Hints:
By secondary structure, this protein is mainly beta. It has one domain: Beta Barrel (Lipocalin). Helices cover 7% and strands 68% of the residues. The protein is built from one helix and 14 strands, in the order αββββββββββββββ. It has one helix spanning 2-20; strands at 30-37, 40-46, 56-57, 70-79, 83-99, 104-106, 109-111, 116-137, 140-159, 164-186, 189-199, 204-218, 221-236, 239-255. Strands 1-4-5-8-9-10-11-12-13-14 form a ten-stranded antiparallel barrel. Strands 6-7 form a two-stranded antiparallel ribbon. A hairpin with a 4-residue loop joins β11 and β12. The radius of gyration is 23 Å and the shape is elongated.
Amino acid sequence: MKKILLVMGFLGFLSWPMLSWAQIGEDYNIEIEGRYWKPRLDSAIKIVENGIGNEFNLVDDLGFEKDKDAGEGRLQIKFFRKHKFNFSFLPLKWEGDKIITRTIEFSGKTYTAGTRVQSKLDLNLFKVGYEYDFLTGAYGFLGATIDVLIGSGAVELKAPELAIQEKEEGTAPVPLIGLMGRLYPFKWLNFTVKVSGLPAGSYGHILDAEASVHINPVKYVGISGGYRYLEVRGRYNDNAVDFRLDGPFAALMIRF
């Protein structure tokens, strides 16, 4: 009996931080997150110049890797409990080297079927935003978000046999609005859903959504796992971009 009481006392000592902090995962001013993401690429683009350009798939036609390893850094600064500033940076890079099986027209250049095409895509996604948690309670909160997503990308195709090479690059800021909800069934565990985007009618849309489970064993450390879906569809004149990434992620959070 004495041993049982000692074991129970020891377990109680270990669980004391979980029981004493209301919503452990919210007791911080600064949160730094390192995230590993395994997205699957599904993308097609069409860039026309001088009437030359057709739509092609980055994976099927150029040989880009379909499943990608990616690392993302995030930072959140919280003021007065309900106000949060969010920052994130996600660098992505693909390369392809393939003898293409159909003719590709890209930005005024023609890459005929049977030609070896070397290609690459560099994409950096920066996001900065503000979150206001307008509904808060003992079991979670619901907040509204306003973000600016800055995408900086470059696509390059090169055919040594044809002595042609073409590169298109650009940077564009896009405003996003969204919602974030978090539910605490236990003080050390929560379920989180985030959705943000921008509808642009016939010009396309952007959607960034994720769902995750967070475990906070102690006040200053948390781990999470979930699934993220990012889609960008755009149409302008004869040019088009259909870009989708989705896959599971795991993250470690350090809080101060």
